[in-house]
Amino acid sequence: MGGVPLSLPSLRPHRDDILLAVVSWLGGLLLYALGLHNQGSRDLLPGWVTLVPLTLLALLELIRRTSPQLALALATLGVIADQFTWGNLATVIMFADIVYAAVVYGTPSAARRIPVTTGMISLTTTIGFLVWFRKPDALLLGLVVAAVSFAPALTGVTLRNHRQAAEAARLRAEQTALLAEIDHNQAVLAERARMARELHDMVANHLSAIAIHSTAALSIDTPETSSRALAVIRENSVQGLAEMRRLIGLLRQSDDSEEPSAAPALDGLDALIQQSRAFAADTGLSFALDDARPPGLKLPPPVELAAYRIVQESLTNALKHASAGPVTVSLSHADDTLTVTVTSPYDGDRPGPRAPGSGAGLVGMEERVTLLDGVLEAGPVPRPDDTKMWRVRAELPAEDNSKELPI
What we know:
Blueprint: H1 15-34, H2 51-60, H3 68-82, H4 89-105, H5 108-133, H6 138-148, H7 150-219, H8 223-251, H9 269-279, E1 285-291, H10 301-321, E2 325-334, E3 337-345, H11 360-371, E4 375-382, E5 388-397
Parallel strand pairs: 1-2
Antiparallel strand pairs: 2-3, 3-5, 4-5
């Protein structure tokens, strides 16, 4: 038959339970041998019958941990039977331990039910003894019942709650450690991405110029071309080295500022345009800057850095891929938004050497704009004369900080 096999609880006793059962049983035998009984002799039953409940509860101690509810049910019958014999203190003590184990190792519902049940039994027994005997001494009998039933159950509840609280605290500590590790990994990844953007934006422009002019020097073997190419290569090598030193300073930075103090800003766009013009010799490219920002505009440093890097990467891409024609950089600010637009010709193959591209520059621009909750558009757009141009347009949220300055 293909039915699901039943899963039965394991009855294999714990080694501590075996030791407890053996010691309790031997202790009960010693009390019986010494004639120490809980109550007077019973004429109806021989004295050796006292050993039957003792042996039963000693056996039940073996399953106090694996089957606590079964052990408690049988132990209850055993301790009741013990009341009809001479009685043995070890039997009563083992019953109290089984009640405790039923709360600690039993199901959650049993752990809630047993203390209430034993408490009601203790209270009912005390009232019954008072009504029956009508003596204050009857209270002692009720206390004995509570001591061997309700008190162990209450102790078990306390221990179980402490264990659950400790387990919950351990789980919270593990979750906290896991979240801390995740935060750390995310911080490391974010810092790596930041360093990758900085490295690409600072060095790619210079390396592209070096690649273009070294290719030109190799393909056009004239003294004039070689001299001009070597001059451009040297200039870009020096500037690239300076940028690398700035990046090393950024990596060694010990404070928590977002960007280093020497981070480039939009005031340096004129120099960047002039540099691109020098790099674009013999390519047919011209460069122009249209800065329509209001006078005295003061933008947050992260916005200025992002806008500068977007323009820098766009000019680098124009040097690599643009056809002959004008490259225009436009800046405007309205409604607390800085708009950066860079357009370049995109009519087909451009004569002359080019540098290969990897696409990392566009990824870096997208990351910068996303970090500032801005919008980036990059791609070819048609012009009225049926030609194409490549346009990069970024909208960056940028509140004018000069409004907050005191007069």
